[in-house]
Amino acid sequence: MEGFAEASLGRLFVVRLPHGGDLLESIKGFAVERGVEAGVLWVIGAVRKASISFYDQAEKSYVKQSFEEPMEILACTGNIGRLKGETLVHAHITLAKRNGETVGGHLEEGTTIFSAEMFLLELKKVALNREYDETTGLNLFRL
Q: Which residues contact 129 (CB under 8 A, 6 or more apart)?
């Protein structure tokens, strides 16, 4: 085990995110407004368009993709932590196109909400601070 921490459960929020808002920014904005520094989240709903990315492990960089079409959010899960003192939302999303084809990846800014319902569970007695990891090139939890 590279590290672990034991947390306690805090508040549970049930949230209707704003129609036309940016999904990633709306999640972050809600967390900041409510003072959530550590948490886990789930979102379902639909988007008008989406921006996602895939982490290229060899290049240690994200490859972005945009989709200019309405899609259903089949699943969006993630966590809220801190990076360099700022709130950071790290979320992955799976989306369904009209024909049933699915796409997914790391949620990026530029994903416009049609409808979105979020459950956000705050974690207490744990700090989800991230720092750069040389091996992976990612900002990982420092536990």
A: 81, 82, 83, 141, 142
Write out residues in the chain with pLDDT < 70, as ranges.
Answer: 1
Measured distance CA(108)–CA(102) in Å, rounded: 17
Coil/strand/helix, residue 88: strand
Encoded amino acid at 138, one letter: L
Q: Which domains does the chain have, with CATH numbers?
A: 11-123 (3.30.1330.80)
pTM here is: 0.95
With tokens 């049933």, the residue in question is 100
Return the residue matching tokens 């490859």: 63
Give yes or no for a contact between 21 and 112, defined as CB atoms under 8 angstroms apart.
yes
- Alpha carbon 106 to chain centroid, angstroms: 7
